[in-house]
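Team,

Forwarding the record for the chain on the shared tracking sheet. I've put the sequence and predicted structure together so nobody has to dig through attachments.
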Amino acid sequence: MSAEDPLIACPHCAAMNRVPLARLAEAPACGRCHHPLFTGVPLALGEADFDRHALRSTLPLLVDFWAPWCGPCLQMAPHFQRAAGLLEPAMRLAKVDTEASPGLGNRFGIRSIPTMVLLQGGREIARQSGAMPAEAIVRWAKGQVG
């Protein structure tokens, strides 16, 4: 393993796992709990676990900031879920309910929802507001990370 191999937070137990780049597409499992590191669905993150995935993991993290009362957010939800299956393991997708985690919405200056924020190394590299179909989400996210 090398320092360039991604460090990935387990979606089940939050343990940090370094996975060789060559094995990333081989359905890697967590070294602690042995569950899959990628599930093909977005993670639901809150204030307690957000930083582990945003700051400690080295994979790009695409976050959908949403709220349960937002019609466009609910329309986009199945598209964002489908995008997770298409973008993993190159990046992790997560959802943050701004009603349940208002501190995260404030931290990122979320003024309208749905808003997607793409983070890499804990830094915001791109932002997109408004509902999008899965194909557009994938195209936009890939275009931002190169």
